[in-house]
Structures are given as C-alpha cells and as structure tokens.
Design the sequence.
C-alpha cells in the first residue's frame, strides 16, 4: 500500500463509508474518486462489502433508544433497591439462618405442645368417643334399615296377600302402621327416621273391612326377625277359607322372612279384600326398640275368632290314648331281678305264694349248689302283664335286691305282619283246595297242587305258632328271678415274709465275716450264698445271704449288730399277704411266718469316701516347716495320708498339698494341730450326701499350704510423708522394715532432681510390727496423707500382715497441688455446655423440619403439577 | 463531551447517578456489540447489558483505575455473560434454540421466505460474525459497534473514547482484515 499513490485516499474509504469525514475532506475525497478510476472501483467494492455486511447483520442491531432503556432500567432498579445490595452469599446465609431459627422455634413449640397434649393432631385426640359412637350409629342405622326393610317387605307382602283373599270374604279389617322409636331416637335419629318416612309414603293407611286380626309379634335382632307370637283371628263367617291355609301356629318357630312369608300364606285367603280397602287399612308396626337394632313388630288385623282346628291339632298328637294301645297293641313285658337271700328254699316258698296272689305261676326253677355249700338258683315267673308291677313291688321284701330290670317290647308291627301273612297263606290254601276239589287239569298238576298245599299248610302252621307264641308272651309277662344265698365269710390265710438288709462297716472284714457265719449257724439259719473278696488297696468286702428261722432272726440280727464295726445301713421289711378265703384275717397271730431272708454286706473303710471333708488353705511363713509339722501330727493321730506333695520353689512360691483322712473321734485334735501350723486363710467343711458309699467313721482333709508371702494382705496402708530429708527417712524406714522381718516388695528412691527427691517404699509386715513402723514413719517426717483400706475378707487375703505403701516427698516440694479448676477445665465445661445446647437446638430443628418438610413437599408437588398442566395446555409445539 | 470519562467515573464512584447514567450512554452500545458477538440474540444481549450496568453500578466503588473504565466494564460484562451461561446450563429443561436461536424464530416469523434461503443467509451471517469475532480486540470493537451496535462514526469514537485519527486507522485496517477473513471463510464454505 505504501507504494500506492492513492494510499492517502484509499485510507479514507472506510472512514467515508462510516461517515467519519468532515466536510473539507469529503469534498476532496469525492473529487478524487470522480477522477481516479481505481479509487472509484475500490470505493464501490468497499461500499458493496459494507452494505452486504450491514444487511447481514441488520437483525443484530438493538432497537433504537438502547441507551435510554439502559438508563431507565438502572434508575428503576436503583429505586427498587434503595439499600446497598448485599453479597449473594451473605443473603443466602441469612436466609439459611432465618429458616433454621424458624424451624427450630417451630420444633420447640411443637414438641412443647405435643408434650402438653394440646397439639391438635387427630391421632392425639381421644377419639374413642367420636369413632366408637360413629360406628355404633352406622351399625344401628344399617341394622335397623335392613331389619326394617325386611320386615316392611314381609308386612307388605302379607297385606298384599290379604288384600287378594279379602275379596272373597268381604271381610273388613284395619291395618295400622305406626312407629314407636322414642327410645332409639336419642342414639340415632337420622338413620332411623329415614325408613319411617319411606313406610309412611308407601303404606299410608290400610283398613281391612272384615275385622280380621293378624297379630304378629316378633323381634328383629341384627336383621333377623324372630317371630315370637303370631296369631290370626278370623271371623266365623269364612272358616272354610282359613282352613285351607297352613297353620298359623307354624309362625312361632320360623325365622324372620320365612315367618313373614308364612303370614303371607296365611293371609292369602283374605288378601283380595285389602286391595280394595288399602287406603283405609291400618297396619300397626310397633317398634319397641329398647336397645339398638331390636325391632318388635306386630301387625294387627282385627278379627274375633281363632282357628279351632289349628288349636286342636296343636293339643292332639302329643298324648297317646291307653284305649288305643289296649285295642291293637301287642306289648311283651318282661323283667329280671336278682336277690341275695338267706335261704333259697324258703324264698322259693314265699315267691310261689306271692305269685299265686297275683294270678301267676312259677314257670321254671333251676338251682345249683356252690362249692361253699351255698345254693344259687333262678326261677321264672309268669304273671298277667297288668299285675307285673304289683308283683315286683311285693317281691322286694324277700331279700336283698341286687338288680332289677323291667322292659317292654312292642311287637305290634311284627304281629300285624304275621296276621297278613296268615291271611295270604290261608287264601292260597283255599285256592289250592279248590283246585284239588274241582279235579281239573292233569294229574301232574294236581300232584303239584297237593305238594304246594302241604308247603302252604306248613307255613300256616308256622305263622300260627309264632302268633300263639307272641300271644302267650303278651298275655303273660315273664319275670326271671335269680336268687343267691348269702355267703359265710371264711378267714383268710395270712403269710408273713421278712427281709433284712444290713451293711456293716468294719475294720476287719474277715473276722466279722466269720463271726456272722457263726451266728447264723448257731441260730440254725441256712446260708444261701456267701462270698468274701479282697480288692486293691487293702479293701475287703463280704456278702452273706441267709435264710433264718423267724423266731431266731432277732437274735442273729442282735449278734450281728454287736460285731466290731458300724452298721451303715439296715433295712427290715416285713410283708403280710392273705391267701385264699374271702373274709378279713381273723387274727394276726394266725399268720404263718416264712423264713427271714438276711442279706448282709461287710466292707472296710479303705476305699470309702468320708462323708465330711475339710478343705483348708494355710498360709505359713515357711511352707516346708508347716508341712513337716502337719505330717507329724497326722502320724501321731493315726491318720492315713492319701496324697502329699510339696512344690518347692522360691520361699514365697512354695506350696504343699496334702490329702488325708482320720477317724472321726480324732479329727478335731488333728484339726487343731493343723491349724497351729499356719494361718488359716480359708477353711471349708463340706458334707457329701448321705448315700451308701460314704462313711461318717472317718473325716477327710484336703490341705493346701501356701507361703504367707504369696497371700495378699487384707489391710493396705498408703502413706504420704513429707520428709525434711527424703533419703534419710527412706533409709531409716527400710532398716526398720528389714529388722522387723518385713518383706520389701519394692523400694525406689529417686534423687535425680535435686529439688524434688522422692521415695517409694512398698512392703508387707506382720501386724505385730505395725507399731514399730508407725514410730519409724513419724520419725521420718510429717504424714500428709494416710489411706487405710481393708479389702473384703475373701479367701485369699491374710489378716496377720499389713501391706504398706509409703511415698516420701520433700517437705518443701510443691508436688502436692490441689485439684483446682484450671483454664482447660473451664474450656471443657464451656464446650460441654455449648455442645449440649447445640444438640438441643438440633433436635428442635429436626422436629421443626419434620413438621414443615411434608407440607413443603406437598406444595412443591402441587406447584409442579399445576405448572406442568398449564404448560401442557399453553405451550406451542416446538418446530 | 463536556466531561471526560475519567471525571465521570470518579463522580460515579461517589454514588453520583447522573454521572453513571452518562457513562451508560457512552458505553451501552459498546457493551451491546461486545456481548452480541457471543450471545447472538438481541433481547438476551440487552438483558445482559442491563445486568452488566447494574453490576457495575454496584461495584464501581471498588474500581481502582478510573482510566481503565471501559476495559473494566468489558470484564464485568464477560463475567456477567459467563454467569448467565452457567445459570442457563443449570436449567436443565432449557431447550436449545428456544431462546437463543433466532434462525428458527425467523423461519417461523416469515413463512413467505423459503427456508433454504433463510438458511443460506443465516450461514453467511454466522460466517460474518465468526470473522468479526476472530479479529483482535482493537479492530473488532469499532467494527462491531458499527455493524452490530448501529453506531455512526461519531458514536463509535465516543463509545470507544478514541481520537479521530486512531479510529480511522483502526477502521481501515479492521475492514481490510475482515474482508480477508470473510473471503477465506466463504471459500471454506
């Protein structure tokens, strides 16, 4: 461009297009362009480009007055926002805090209200009343309505039916519908009112001209009508119409609708009349609903007379007349009786006499003589049925009545069948006789007829026989009497058996065994079985089973008891058994005594556990020494050491355990000796259950000896001593402890820090030396703290020594600082309070949130739905 | 030009609304042109310009260099634009082309014009805009003011606060560059 002579002009092209040239320049520019073809071309090209760009971008230009609009907008916003705008974060934070406080406050109020029970939530209101009564109301109304409509329908049908029948009889009666629901009105006025209106509408007033009355009493219970009383009265003028209908009495026992349908049937005969006089009729519907849901209704159709036939039928069929049965009935009466009598024969006589009085006779007699010489027999009496009862009454006196059975069998049907069978057979007989008499037909046929005649005659005979038999049975009742002579009781035979079981603890089983055998032999007893055994560990056992003469048994037992030993177990069983005979044994001395069975067990005590055992824990200064002492004591007392062991370690860790037993009488002496060997830390005496395998003859001991050092001292003293010179005090104390035989557990003298020298001394010492220690402590310095604690007296603590824990401090040492409230304490307390408050308010916020969130959610959802709906209606389809 | 920009800014910083309004008048089209190139929707651009001024009015007190007012204003405009874009992006249901796409509106508004032509014209337009956008700031602003802001020569110099001579040079060179770029783009197309 630089070598272009027109550069000063071409540089102005754009400016000129933009209108940026002043008048002078413009004139000069235009002049030049007019003359210069190249510049003109450049100008036109630039114009074209400028125009095309401008037209392309014309849409982008703002509407005129952009500046004014901007200024206006700023003014407007400045007016609306007079205060200085806050940072959005600040605003958000403020909103958040406000919402939180609001939620918290709301939660607080709500939780208070809930606690007070004043919050009006439906679930918190005692709603049993409203809901309960509501249900009751609905139940009542529903039941009533159902019952009512059911009953109403029934009545309507009845009345309609009556209307039809009434046309035949020109009867006139009134039907009245009324409703009495005063008692139920307070409970459910609305629902019960409703059917009243309906009823009034549909059945205004019905009058029935003939004065017939239908009484319908009933109860409606839960929708079911139970008729209680229904009577239908009918004037005498139209009895035949009424008779044709089913009995009104059936109504009593029918269910609701059924019952009313029967009313309808009953009323059929008179129904036509009602149709005519429907408007004048009057049906009375009495509802005496004492309780909800009960409907008592009666339909009154006035009439005077009642169905005579229906009544008669009601009373008729229940009784059976005696005349009837006497005429046609065939009843067999029979009876059985059992008596216990003193004498069979004399009783027979008496019975015969009584039967004769009653017009009967003795049919059969049958008697047996029993083994015990007594007689048992049966007699059968025949007596006219009418006299049977009297006879039975009279017979009561002959003896002891054991059983009685009178029965009657009605064979009327069977008898009638026989009669008809007989008639048929006779007819057949006649027929066959006719055939034979006329003699027509072939010989073969005649022979056949003869044969048949025989068959039929046989049948006739048979039937007649049966009938006779029945007649006999019916005409005379049969009473069979069983008589038993009273038995004489004979004494029972009694035998007595005796069994003796004996267990003997003895030191010398063998000699006891021999002596027992001797004693048995001397008493002429019989040894059934005997054995003597020697087991391991010097244990013997022997058993003897013997049968002893009854008289000698006591003597043998007495001798056995005197044997050297202790009777550990003794059982003597005696049983009497009666054999044969029926009566009680007359005299116990009559008993036959069988041989006494003796079962004797002998054993020595080597392997038998003592019943009582003592478990001891000794704490001794020297385990070894105590162990030896105890062993000596056992040996001198004659005890038996079962096990003994010493575990020798360091003096304070040695232990010894011993198990021994000794005869009971020497046990206490030994126990005293053992107790003297050390300090008893723990002692326990236990008794085994008193069973067969334990003995009281000896006592067991389980002894454990521990070093005294190993046991904890029951008493502990903690001392803090402010000493002018810690090292001196420490050393003095230590010397005293050692000299008094104390055991130093730990000792520490800390001299690292010259300013605060401390010493810690822990030791155990015998209680006897505590005074010396106290003196030494007082000498060492001033006691600034003392804590004496005694632990519970458990099994492992020792009271004979005291444990000391002594802290020695420099007298001027500031080590002892009271627990004052420090800065940290205050901070902690403050944080604690703050945290509590924070949690509290958080709870409130959560409660508030729980109250608000559902509402917010609902509102949001509704808003969304509305928005969606409105958008769905108005939004145009996207191109 | 009775008052210099600098003086106006200083007064505006003292909460002088009249001075700020004057500044608004002097810079509204500049902002419009600047923003339109990115937004390409006149209504939205106007909203953003307005928002930018409000933002500027709020924070003008914090501005340290009154001379660099225009530059600062452009920075504010950019941040406002970016915020707006973020907001739009956050509204998930915003359908693309619903508001910003003027082409669809134009098609819908002028049914008599054939859509193909509209499309072609639209493409040319986009090319022109892109070419403008690719220009360096100094050339772009006068040109955008001229074509997008609808400002005449005096207005351009007022909006940019430039002297006559420097504006001539910028215009001249800017147009030359624009022409070159458009040629390249047209050929590409």
Sequence:
């Amino acid at each position: 461009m630089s070598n272009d002579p027109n550069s000063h002009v071409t540089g102005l092209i754009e400016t000129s297009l933009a209108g940026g040239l002043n008048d002078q320049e413009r004139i000069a520019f235009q002049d030049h362009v007019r003359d210069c073809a190249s510049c003109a071309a450049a100008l036109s090209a630039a114009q074209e480009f400028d125009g095309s760009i401008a037209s392309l971008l014309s849409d982008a230009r703002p509407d005129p007055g952009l500046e004014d609009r901007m200024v206006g907008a700023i003014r407007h916003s400045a007016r609306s926002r007079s205060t200085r705008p806050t940072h959005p974060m600040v605003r958000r934070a403020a909103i958040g805090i406000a919402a939180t406080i609001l939620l918290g406050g709301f939660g607080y109020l709500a939780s208070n209200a809930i606690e007070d029970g004043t919050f009006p939530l439906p679930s918190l209101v005692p709603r049993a009343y409203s809901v309960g009564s509501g249900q009751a109301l609905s139940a009542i109304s529903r039941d009533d309505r159902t019952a009512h409509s059911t009953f109403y329908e029934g009545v309507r049908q009845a009345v309609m039916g009556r209307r039809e029948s009434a046309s035949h009889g020109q009867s006139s009666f009134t039907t009245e519908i009324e409703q009495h629901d005063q008692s139920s009105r307070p409970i459910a006025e609305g629902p019960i009112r409703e059917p009243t209106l309906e009823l009034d509408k549909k059945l205004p007033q019905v009058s029935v001209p003939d004065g017939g009355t239908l009484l319908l009493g009933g109860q409606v219970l839960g929708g079911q009508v139970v008729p209680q009383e229904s009577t239908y009265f009918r004037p005498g003028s139209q009895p035949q119409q009424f008779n044709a209908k089913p009995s009104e009495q059936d109504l009593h026992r029918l269910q609701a609708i059924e019952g009313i349908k029967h009313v309808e049937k009953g009323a059929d005969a008179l129904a036509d009349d009602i149709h005519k006089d429907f408007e004048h009729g009057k049906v009375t519907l009495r509802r005496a609903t004492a309780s909800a849901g009960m409907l008592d209704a009666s339909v009154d159709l006035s009439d005077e007379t009642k169905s005579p036939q229906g009544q008669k039928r009601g009373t008729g069929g229940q009784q059976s007349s005696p005349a009837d049965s006497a005429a046609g009935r065939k009843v067999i009466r029979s009876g059985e009786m059992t008596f216990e009598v003193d004498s069979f024969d004399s009783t027979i006589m008496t019975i015969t006499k009584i039967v004769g009085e009653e017009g009967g006779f003795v049919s059969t007699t049958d008697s047996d003589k029993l083994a015990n010489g007594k007689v048992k027999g049966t007699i059968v009496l025949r007596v006219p049925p009418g006299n049977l009862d009297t006879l039975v009454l009279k017979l009561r006196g002959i003896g002891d009545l054991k059983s009685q059975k009178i029965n009657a069998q009605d064979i009327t049907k069977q008898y009638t069948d026989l009669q008809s069978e007989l008639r048929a057979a006779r007819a057949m007989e006649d027929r066959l006789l006719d055939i034979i008499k006329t003699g027509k037909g072939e010989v073969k046929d005649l022979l056949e007829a003869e044969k048949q005649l025989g068959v039929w005659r046989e049948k006739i005979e048979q039937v007649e026989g049966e009938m006779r038999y029945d007649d006999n049975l019916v005409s005379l009742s049969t009473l069979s009497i069983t008589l038993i002579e009273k038995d004489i009781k004979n004494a029972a035979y009694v035998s007595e058996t005796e069994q003796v079981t004996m267990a003997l603890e003895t030191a010398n089983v063998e000699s006891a065994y021999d002596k027992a055998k001797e004693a048995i032999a001397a008493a002429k007893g019989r040894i059934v079985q005997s054995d003597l055994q020697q087991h391991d560990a010097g244990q013997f056992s022997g058993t003897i089973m013997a049968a002893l003469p009854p008289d000698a048994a006591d003597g043998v037992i007495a001798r056995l008891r005197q044997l050297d030993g202790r009777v550990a177990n003794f059982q003597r069983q005696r049983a009497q058994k009666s054999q044969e005979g029926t009566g009680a044994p007359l005299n116990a001395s009559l008993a036959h005594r069988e041989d006494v069975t003796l079962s004797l067990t002998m054993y020595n005590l080597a392997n038998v556990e003592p019943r009582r055992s003592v478990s001891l824990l000794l704490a001794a200064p020297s385990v070894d020494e105590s162990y030896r002492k105890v062993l000596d004591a056992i040996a001198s007392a004659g005890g038996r050491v079962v096990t003994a062991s010493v575990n020798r370690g360091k003096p304070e860790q040695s232990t010894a355990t011993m198990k021994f037993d000794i005869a009971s009488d020497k046990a206490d002496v030994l126990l005293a000796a053992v107790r003297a060997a050390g300090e008893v830390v723990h002692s326990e005496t236990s008794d085994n259950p008193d069973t067969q395998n334990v003995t009281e003859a000896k006592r067991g001991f389980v002894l454990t000896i521990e070093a005294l050092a190993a046991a904890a001292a029951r008493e502990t003293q903690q001392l803090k001593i402010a000493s002018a010179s810690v090292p001196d005090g420490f050393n003095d104390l230590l010397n005293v402890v050692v000299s008094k035989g104390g055991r130093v557990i730990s000792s520490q003298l800390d001299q690292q820090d010259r300013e605060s020298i401390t010493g810690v001394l822990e030791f155990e010492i015998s209680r006897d030396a505590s005074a010396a220690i106290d003196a030494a402590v007082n000498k060492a310095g001033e006691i600034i703290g003392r804590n004496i604690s005694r632990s519970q007296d458990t099994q492992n603590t020792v009271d004979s020594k005291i444990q000391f824990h002594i802290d020695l401090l420099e007298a001027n040492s500031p080590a002892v600082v009271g627990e004052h409230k420090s800065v940290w304490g205050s901070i902690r307390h403050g944080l604690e309070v703050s945290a509590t408050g924070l949690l509290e308010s958080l709870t409130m916020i959560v409660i508030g949130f729980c109250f608000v969130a559902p509402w917010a959610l609902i509102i949001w959802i509704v808003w969304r739905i509305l928005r969606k709906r409105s958008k769905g209606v108005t939004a145009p389809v996207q191109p | 030009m009775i008052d210099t920009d600098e003086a106006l800014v200083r007064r505006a910083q003292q909460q002088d609304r009249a001075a700020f309004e004057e500044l608004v008048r002097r810079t509204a089209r500049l902002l419009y042109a600047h923003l339109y190139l990115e937004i390409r929707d006149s209504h939205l651009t106007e909203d953003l310009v307005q928002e930018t001024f409000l933002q500027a009015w709020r924070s003008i007190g914090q501005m340290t260099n009154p001379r660099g007012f225009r530059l600062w204003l452009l920075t504010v405009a950019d941040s406002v634009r970016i915020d707006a874009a973020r907001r739009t992006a956050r509204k998930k249901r915003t359908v693309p082309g619903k508001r910003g796409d003027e082409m669809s509106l134009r098609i819908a508004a002028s049914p008599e014009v054939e859509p193909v032509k509209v499309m072609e014209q639209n493409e040319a337009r986009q090319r022109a805009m892109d070419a403008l956008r690719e220009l360096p700031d100094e050339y772009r602003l006068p040109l955008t003011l001229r074509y997008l802001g609808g400002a005449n020569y005096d207005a351009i110099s007022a909006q940019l606060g430039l002297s006559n001579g420097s504006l001539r040079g910028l215009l001249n060179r800017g147009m030359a560059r624009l022409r070159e770029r458009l040629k390249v783009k047209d050929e590409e197309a």
In short: The first helix of chain B runs from residue 5 to 13. Residues 64 and 72 of chain B are 10 Å apart (CA to CA).
